[in-house]
Amino acid sequence: MSTSPPARLLRSAHSLAERVLAFLRRKVLFRYRLVLIVLVLLAVGIGVGAVWGPPGWFPPSAVIITVLAGGLLLKRRSLAFLFGVVAVVLAFTAYALDFSQVGPGLAVTIGVTAVVAYLLSGVRERLGVQGLDGEKMLLELRDRIRTQGQLPALPAGWHATQVLRQAGGSSFGGDFVVSTLRDDQLDIAVVDVSGKGVEAGTRALLLSGAFGGLIGAVPRGEFLEHCNDYLVRIAGGEGFVTAVHLSVDLTTGEYLLASAGHPPAVQFDHTTGAWSPTEAKGVVLGIIPEMSYTPVRGRLRPGDAVMLYTDGLVETPGEDLDAGVDRLLGAAESLVAMGFGPGTEQFVDTLSKDKNDDRALVVLWRTH
Known about the structure:
This protein is of the alpha+beta class. It has helices at about 5-30, 35-50, 65-75, 75-95, 105-125, 135-150, 195-215, 225-235, 320-340, 345-350; strands at about 160-165, 175-180, 185-195, 240-250, 255-260, 265-270, 275, 295-300, 305-310, 360-365.
């Protein structure tokens, strides 16, 4: 018994539809099919409403909402399918309305939005997260850095404060602080990753965790050596790091101070009322394997203070670094009058005026 042509055509169409649906389930809809279906229905609904709905209730430009939502919630294959649906909806709307509401301007706007959404979707797909989870992860990492960099509560007679500022007002920067208090031993390290702002922020995210673990686990005078060994292993030519490490015995005030390519720490002597730079010097971290960093010894007596900072406070293009340090020493006189704690914010603002660099400052002082 032969099959009529209409029946054969119907079976062919049914078979084709099944293959298309299987492809969509396998390649496009997979994990995000429900979100995709909702956005497709929304786009189609906007097109239908624009043609047959109440005037002004369903503007064709509303399909931008589906494009933006797709960029946040869909992977690229699903997003490409949504773009195709949006293009068909716009073409149908333009044809039905005689291009009265869908002009070149709207088409270009939606096209640019689609490109941006596709790029954002690609970034999120590489991270393995969709929606706003990537931003939440970055914010959590930023908050962890700030929490980790907070100075510990100190015993009576000892005080410390810090200021961290990122270039361009960014939430991420290349300067960070790690510290730990073990019994009566306080360790503080101020670190400056090469680069500025967000460019250095990703490396700072990685290194702050590693350095924070090292500062509480290695012998007192070997922190910078271990940091250098770690950087040599993982750096891969990504740039250098400078750091200064201060280890203080809070019972006696005796300290060890080591530097790796960092601007010199400065100490306030209450007997003379003057600030002076320390002599700690060393090669930047992450360049030469098995480097040693010889610390200088000193003592903080009641009334004394020590200041650690990064080059964002003293470095000016075309000017010698010593001139910047001299300027810092002069400005530090105001801290004595205002108080080492209350005056630090204004101190940083004064020194970093008209500069676009990451800045970090830590002041530790001892009272009578």
